[in-house]
Amino acid sequence: MALDAQSNWNVEMAQPLKIPTCPSSQRPIQELPSTVPAIIPSHSGREVLLPSEIISHILSYIPRRENTQSTFWACSLVSRAWYSASIALLYNRPYLNGGNFSEFVRTVCPSKNAHIRQSTLAVLVRKLDMGELVHNASRSLTARLLGRLKGNIEEFVAPQASFAINSFAALSKCTKLRHLDLSLISASISNKLLFQTLKSLRELETLFFPRSSSHDQEHNTGVAYFWPPKLYALHLAGGVDSHFLRTHLVNAPPSLQRLSIQHCSQVFRPALVDMLQTLGPQLQHLTIRHPMQQLWVGALDPVLDECPSLTALRISADFVSDKMFSALYVQSPHPLRILDIECSPTAGADVGVSASAIYDAVEDGRLPDLRSVRVSAHLAWGATEGTRTDASDLEEILEEAEMERPLGVVTGVWWSMPD
Questions:
Q1: Max Cα–Cα distance, the chain, nearest Å
Q2: 120: closest CA among 144, 151, 78, 97?
Q3: 219-223, long-range: CB < 8 A, 24+ apart
Q4: pLDDT the model gives residue 29
Q5: Residue 266 — φ and ψ, nearest 5°?
Q6: CB contact at 8 A, 170 and 196
Q7: Rounded Cα–Cα distance for residues 288 and 315 (Å)
Q8: What's the N-to-C CA distance of the chain in angstroms?
Q9: Below-50 pLDDT ranges, the chain
């Protein structure tokens, strides 16, 4: 993608670089205010002025996907007015890959020198996803790119290989960030450095923790890290251990309602249960996925009891059993609506959750709001006539509950969910 502030019709994204010209003047078209109307011919031969509001309304029908990026590029070549209306949509969320990344960088970072006037198009970028870039950028280039976009960027997905320590200084200045995904980073990242950066991201709502986070030398100080005050969704993986859960995660803000934990080989059951006892009452969505080697079948049976406000739960059958739905752990009506049960490929014969156990919980009024149940094919709910009957009975009671008291949730039972 190359579109430069001096020749604003250089709007290439996913195609070879072109320099379009104005059909009427054959000269490069400069950037114009969005109030300039488009001029189109009518059947009578008279020109009709098309207001910019109409053009914007037309463009709103184009889905914002990778395969429509070239459509917005083409729209920007129609006229000055179409350019003004489509250019912001084109740069709002650029889809970057190895073929267009270099041109995109030359557009928003025309020079390494800070005193060089920045591109006027850099301010249009709100979402920067570098997740598909592996060896296309250097660490210094990623830091420079964040530095140029810091005033407006709201979402950022870090690349695997070109994000390192020198990028954190620039990241800390992106104070408008609402979504931050560091899950792909391969370099070992200090938790202390990460949380020093998070201090300035006070608008952050969603955080994907780096899977390669490392333990700090101050591991045993017991001083809790500061979390962004508006944090709503947190996804943990990799280097997170029991100490992190007990010391830092329990200090999460009251705004946290969605939590995901997976691939944490150093998280033990006592720390996980302690954390759920603290944060469980505020959680509405919870995901605990395999592999987590320190957990066993039935280890997390009390999860619904510890999280009385959950409306959606995704959990591995490797960590629960039918007792999870018994009166022992679900003693009062629970608001759970969506239940996804996965299963690891290495699960043993003792791993299994039955449809009949869930049916009993719904029938007895312990899960009156449950509407959607999806389970892994490894649980073999469709293997025999008896298990298929149990699944059909469960689906029937869920549909009846939705008819009597609609909650707007897609209702059904699916027993072939991929893991």
A1: 81
A2: 151
A3: 219/243, 222/247, 223/247
A4: 31
A5: -110, 20
A6: no
A7: 5
A8: 37
A9: 1-37
399 token code pair? 């549909």
Spatial neighbors of 417 by CB under 8 A, at least 6 apart, are 340, 342, 374, 375, 376, 377
Tokens of 334: 């629970």
Residue from 120, 168, 113, 131 nearest 146 by CA? 168
Residues in the chain: 419
Other CB atoms within a 10 A radius of the CB of residue 45 amount to 6
Other Cβ atoms within 10 Å of 418 Cβ, number: 7
- The pLDDT tens digits for 212-252 are 776 665 555 568 899 999 999 999 998 899 999 999 999 99
- pLDDT value at residue 51: 87
CA 401, CA 397: separation in Å to the nearest integer? 6
148, HSE (Cβ side, Cα atoms, 13 Å): 27
Residue type, position 81, single letter: A
